[in-house]
């Protein structure tokens, strides 16, 4: 199976804006992640897995983010993920800019899921027109669509960026909180829920021939951590990772997806594009990842290509069939 | 035929000279690209009495260069006994460098811009550049741009905190966009075309046997000048055998999975892949008049050339498959088919590069869908393939390979035409990093 995001995953959400029942709360500026993590970590201790998950009907908004301030950070980001130098912000960099606001939603006292231990399952981002360095952004973020998963609750964290009131970027990041359950659901481990799958039912996966090999050193975690602000200890050191049950530090999933996006490149993804990612087994650092970034038309009939064509990418452990990630980049 | 080719005068091949190719880290340790190219050039000068001669141009290059080698070929000319007024420039097209240099100078000869020229190339693994990492390089550059001692120290301070920045970076054969070595790339193409280990070893065996025989027969006596105590290519093994080659362990393509989920067998070994090599070559070209005025031999005409690139980055095509696209264009433009070619000089980057190229030309679907041909391009008569050996046996000092092949091809068609009394043709095909292919057509003069 090479298909990436099934249609029901993305079309449930409205194409723009938070659900109408949500209230918009303005923040003066994008918060810093360090403080949010401290709050999130502390709150995670209090938040206990339970049934009847209800998300706060609140969207955060920062009305005026000057991207000119991010010039040095953009250059560093481009360097780390392999994007060419450009004043156009790649979708992955917009994700990085909006990420603290999304995190602020997730560390609210009334956000029912603990920040620590949330697993990033998939990400669907759309760039509708290019955002350039110097553009002033309005950024919004909220959580919606809590639903059952085989091992807990899935929730979508949505981030949007507007330039002069026009939606330029929209991303839906789906996280799994293990052990929780949505209201009306019998709870994890039962057979309820429409989109549950058992491991046994997962089709076996055969890696294609690679198009690239990534030799990822230990420094990849701290480097992407520095440009993204996501300094989750599981990415920074083996010690930090061990505390959360990983044998070694793991690469940021979004780093691998951003690098795949960069390997498609600005010339082939165009000004407006959709970029999806689905995360499977984490990449342990250091590690060697075989990657196939292929034309959808070369990847077989089971891959849905957009009308303008597009790319499908896969990453797996070199010499194994351990799948790390998969996704698509499709011009819109 | 050949109406699409404008009429120009001929560019002819007078002869070539190279130094013996030597496996990396052996005879040519502490020998620079400039040393080697100058030696190859001086041998050519001596062979054809060019001392003090003002040539139209000398063009060549090296794939791996030290930063001080920015004007490598001009510096070599200045160190040679050619007239110092002979102009020169460097050119680089990965492994296509030497052949592209020949294309460049023969085009100028054909257009009447110059009368004579030398094209060639050189490469060394033994004296390859070693660079500092980007972090250290940036710190050093920032320090050099600093205006005060304080700023200079400030720029260099981070280096103290990162001793790993001091680790040198050595060049490798990895593709910048994919991180895969050339061998790993070719292993993908080998897998796609299902080329067997036996077929590859057979190509390697032939290459050694043919090159060894050619040396024994004296074919290279007027093509090679001894250098640094070496008088023959030191990679050639006349005594190798299919059994010996079969014993070698695979080195590339060891982690690939087939459609059925089972591991694909790795087939590429050190025996059927070219070794890293040091060496240099040079070829003398001119107008027919220039050669006749000096009573120099005319071996062949450099008729035409074609280059191609392929889309390998996203796996649509194999890295080294561009010659498969270039050759049909070259031959069709000249009104020729594969059957009109007496000698196929297909550079053996890997034995399987030769085999995947031949397989592509025989594949009807591939030729129609990828090359836009009406059907299969044709079959290469294997008895005409690399008859005096190629890179698997001789070695492959990247930019020097084109010159080696052009001189060999010119001598082959000359001898064949003399023997049969009818024109003889050689096709030259060189694959290169970056998905490039450089091909040329040589005909007896």
Automatic annotation (TrEMBL), chain B:
Keyword terms: Acyltransferase, Transferase
Pfam families referenced in this protein's UniProt entry, alphabetically: Thiolase_C, Thiolase_N
InterPro entries xref list: 3-ketoacyl-CoA_Thiolase (IPR050521), Thiolase (IPR002155), Thiolase-like (IPR016039), Thiolase_C (IPR020617), Thiolase_N (IPR020616)
EC class: transferase
UniProt domain Thiolase C-terminal: residue ranges: 297-443
Thiolase N-terminal domain ranges (all copies): 12-288
Molecular functions per Gene Ontology: acetyl-CoA C-acetyltransferase activity
SUPFAM superfamilies for the chain: Thiolase-like
EC number assigned by the record: 2.3.1.9
Family: Belongs to the thiolase-like superfamily. Thiolase family.
Name of the featured protein: Acetyl-CoA C-acetyltransferase
Source taxonomy: Bacteria, Bacillati, Actinomycetota, Actinomycetes, Micrococcales
